Amino acid sequence: MRAGEKLKASDGYEVLLFPLEYLYMSQDEGGDYSHLYTYSIDFLGWGVNGRIYNCPYYAPCTCRCVGTFGSGRVFQSVDKVHTVDGYFGIITFACHHDNTPVSPSSHVYQQGELIGHTGTAGGSQVTGDHLHLNVAHGVYDGYYDVGTGHYQLKNSVHIYDTMYVNDTVIVRGYNHNWRTYSGGVTPSGKKYKFKWVLYANKLRNGGR
Fold this sequence. Notes:
CATH class: Mainly Beta
Number of domains: 1
Low-confidence stretches: none
Structural class: mainly beta
CATH architecture: Distorted Sandwich
Order of helices and strands: EEEEEEEEEEEEEEEEH
CATH topology: Glucose Permease (Domain IIA)
Helix content: under 10%
Radius of gyration: 16 Å
Shape: globular
CATH superfamily: Glucose Permease (Domain IIA)
């Protein structure tokens, strides 16, 4: 998704979007390191000229921060959303390694709004600065140990089965079936005045 992007289905409910402008996987789900038997995936910050550190990512739907776990902040959709797998309901997602802490609050982030940056908080020895992302169906119900000493959200699901990649450039997707949403209403080409949107557009255009 692009900074500031919004996407709604014909029924007026939001479509869940992938939170980065470029998709570059650095560790797949179920990996033999920190993702063993989990649905979590690591993504590098990326742009037209390559890797970006402290890369911004955006609210995939209108949401608020409802919890923290280690280096992660947990967000929950304010309303029901549409996902790739046909699920229509509340979504919870966790973003790990941002170096700027965020506490649970009643503040509502609008879809497309800046909610964090890739980072190294909590230890990220394999890929360094990145976003560790985990998505689950339903309201936030905590984490659990999958049996290998690694944790994920309860009711976790595959990211590629939940988040659409409209306006995301796929650089390295590990052959997963990443899909775009057809139909709906999106403010494509709309100009946003927020500084973080201008910064994101600058990154997308290679600093120009």
